[in-house]
UniProtKB/TrEMBL annotation:
Residue spans crossing the bilayer: 20-39, 46-67, 73-90, 102-121, 127-147, 197-217, 268-286, 328-349, 361-382, 402-419
Name assigned to this protein: Putative polymerase
Keyword set includes Methyltransferase: no
Superkingdom, natural source: Bacteria
Keywords recorded for this protein, A-Z: Membrane, Transmembrane, Transmembrane helix
Taxonomic source organism: Enterovirga rhinocerotis
The keyword Membrane belongs to this UniProt entry's keyword annotation: yes
Signal peptide start-end: none
């Protein structure tokens, strides 16, 4: 078959050696906070160093596995680290967390690419979905027992994520564990929002959207599996009152429908469009207070963006503003525009997606980031980030960046001949 042939078909290939370890790492990233919460409540007091240490172990093992398979890891890591060190030196503020945030997408994507497969992705989602649903049901039906062994608020205090004087929204729950302004999904269920293994509802909603996107992609021809998994996803989203997760699920269906019409360049400009719209909205609502509704979170994100000057947006000047409610402001202030563009370009133009199935999941991943960065920094957490990027690597197939796109070798040949003289290119004058 020639390099310029049409898109390849999705085929079932033997699973690479190490796929079980790769799945175990993804599941470990999903649940290790719950395990530490249990240890903190029942064994000994944990600290931020324990959380950081386990993250380093998980990312380190995944990185060691990938390092033996992919030369791309070295090139991307060197380029990213060089820029980030320069930016941190310019703003005289060294933060190791930024390196971690940059490496998680790279390492877990390559982990899925080299040690995963579509079948491995199926197993990772199924195992994760069963664990998360079990945790959600335990928390919902046996809240006192759950908080006895997993004192969520105490754990967040121990690791320094919540001030020790903060009382919380309820006994042992995280800040957003109760919805005092009323539920969006089935209000008769009350104020409690489950968090399951994530210990906070935001990541639960993000997980629901990721699982929905994969199940819709893969189980369309298996009605029994599709219905069962969709029921589990609906259960965790409803119990967690994850309205943004539900919105994302609706958007996933729309994205998959229009995928044949989408092109990489269109995807590339989406974050810039989102940034412009956020700034316009913030300027239009200047001086107005924001609330905890979706529109209010968008307003807060836009307002935080307006606090950045040019040097801060380039990542070259420090800022004391907390950007927890604005992913774009956080990315620009910490990675800088150049660093953010580097990562975005690598995925949009460098990630292969030759089948329509892989192209659809690539579009979902991009839209997920574009939308989530508009209201929070939750896309940075390893709890859901490891699963998302592992699945993105599992879905990546072929060599082209989109179905029907020109093979890189063919494009290179065209560009080379375009700059040759007619005689050297073997053409007549």
């Amino acid at each position: 078959m020639s390099d310029t042939a049409g898109p390849v078909r999705a085929v079932s290939l033997p699973e690479p050696r190490g796929s079980q370890v790769a799945i175990a790492l993804v599941v470990a990233a999903l649940v290790f906070n719950l395990a530490l919460s249990f240890i903190n409540a029942s064994v000994f007091r944990v600290s931020a160093s324990h959380v950081i240490g386990i993250e380093l172990v998980i990312v380190g093992i995944a990185g060691a596995m990938v390092a033996t398979r992919s030369a791309n890891l070295y090139a991307i890591t060197i380029a990213l680290f060089a820029w980030l060190v320069f930016a941190m030196a310019a703003r005289a503020n060294f933060d190791p967390k930024i390196f971690r945030d940059a490496l998680i997408p790279v390492i877990f994507f390559l982990l899925g690419r080299h040690f995963g497969s579509l079948a491995a992705g199926d197993r990772a989602v199924t195992i994760s979905l069963l664990i998360v649903t079990a945790g959600a049901l335990l928390e919902w039906f046996f809240l006192d027992l759950f908080l006895k062994y997993f004192d969520v608020l105490s754990f967040y205090r121990a690791k320094g994520a919540v001030d020790a004087s903060f009382g919380g929204d309820g006994p042992g729950l995280y800040i957003s564990g109760l919805r005092f302004d009323g539920r969006t999904l089935l209000p008769f269920l009350g104020e409690h929002r489950v968090s399951s293994v994530f210990l906070e509802p935001v990541s639960l909603g993000n997980f629901g959207a990721i699982a929905f996107a994969w199940v819709l992609l893969r189980d369309g021809k298996r009605p029994a599996a599709l219905i069962l998994k969709m029921l589990l996803i609906a259960t965790v989203l409803i119990l967690g009152d994850s309205r943004f997760g539900v919105y994302l699920c609706v958007i996933v269906a729309l994205i998959y429908a229009v995928a044949p019409l989408a092109r990489p360049l269109t995807v590339f400009v989406m974050p810039f469009i989102a940034l412009i719209l956020l700034l316009i909205y913030a300027w239009h609502k200047a001086g107005m207070p924001w609330d905890n509704t979706t529109s209010g979170r968008i307003l807060a994100s836009g307002q935080l963006l307006t606090t950045l000057d040019l040097s801060q947006a380039l990542g070259l000047k420090t800022t004391v503003v907390d950007f927890g409610d604005s992913g774009y402001a956080y990315v620009l202030s910490q990675f800088g525009l150049f660093g953010a563009l580097m990562l975005w370009s690598i995925y949009v133009f460098g990630c292969p997606a030759e089948t329509m199935q892989s192209w659809r999941f690539k579009l979902f991943t991009c839209m997920y980031l574009v939308l989530l960065l508009s209201i929070s920094t939750s896309s940075m957490t390893i709890k859901t980030g490891a699963l998302l990027w592992f699945l993105a690597g599992c879905a990546a197939q072929g060599t082209r960046m989109a179905p029907g796109a020109m093979h890189p070798a063919a494009l290179s040949a065209i560009l080379t001949n375009a700059f040759r003289s007619p005689r050297r290119a073997g053409l007549r004058r």
